[in-house]
Design brief:
transcription regulation; five-stranded parallel β-sheet; 5 strands; phosphoprotein; about 220 residues; alpha/beta; Arc Repressor Mutant, subunit A; Two-component response regulator; Rossmann fold
């Protein structure tokens, strides 16, 4: 079964370019397009896509609110959202990730990265590029806690090792990299990540990274 993709962007030329790239892949099928968030909601209900390629800045309803409604508790289907942002990193991407997006991608990313990102998100994983994630969170450090605020009660539910794993997830490390850093197996890391997500009520690694910054566990700019 091909991965069903909905393209959401207010620029028709960009949608045409994305369609050409995706339709060249046998396992991807573009099932529809939308020029704003309201159209996206209608198309998601009608077409039941697997992945929504979502722009942020659009008329009538922006990508953040559309993402929140598509991935929220009242969601009508299994659609995952992959956010598109510009090279200088859109200030609303953090909000989109908090709203339930499974990751984000730069609009000028190479075609192979776009295709791979859609496959990753469709498989239920988070598209969390370490270098871009750090740049994004550090860029908007002024909107995040300084680290001096009280630690959230939910953080106290984690074991010391789970806190270590959460910090490394926030830095954008993969399971293999975390395993090497902590001298444990990848299976052990996966177990720890699963416990962290369950205890904190988070959807995926992307939301875990945002949580780590917002809670002050990881400070923007820190190594």
């Amino acid at each position: 079964m091909a991965i069903r993709v909905l393209l959401v962007d207010d620029q028709p030329l960009l949608r045409t370019g994305f369609r050409m790239i995706l339709e060249a892949e046998q396992d991807l099928a573009v099932v529809g397009e939308a020029g704003d968030g309201l159209q996206a909601l209608d198309q998601v209900r009608a077409l039941q896509p697997d992945v929504v390629l979502m722009d942020i800045r659009m008329p009538r309803m922006d990508g953040v609110e559309a993402t929140r409604q598509i991935t929220g508790p009242e969601r009508d289907g299994p659609a995952k959202v992959l956010v598109l942002t510009t090279f200088d990193l859109d200030e609303y991407v953090v909000e989109a990730l908090k709203a339930g997006a499974s990751g984000f991608l730069l609009k000028d990313a190479p075609a192979n990265e776009l295709v791979q990102a859609i496959r990753v998100v469709a498989a239920g994983e988070a598209m969390l590029a370490p270098s871009i994630t750090r740049r994004l969170l550090d860029k908007y450090a002024t909107h995040l806690p300084s680290g001096e605020e009280p630690v959230p009660d939910t953080l106290h539910t984690l074991t010391d090792r789970e806190v270590e794993v959460l910090k490394l997830v926030a830095r954008g490390l993969s399971n293999a990299e975390i395993a090497a850093d902590l001298f444990v197996s990848e299976t052990t890391v996966k177990t720890h990540v699963g416990h962290v997500l369950t205890k904190l009520g988070l959807r995926d690694r992307v939301q875990a990274a945002v949580y780590a910054y917002e809670s002050g566990l990881v400070r923007p700019g820190a190594q």
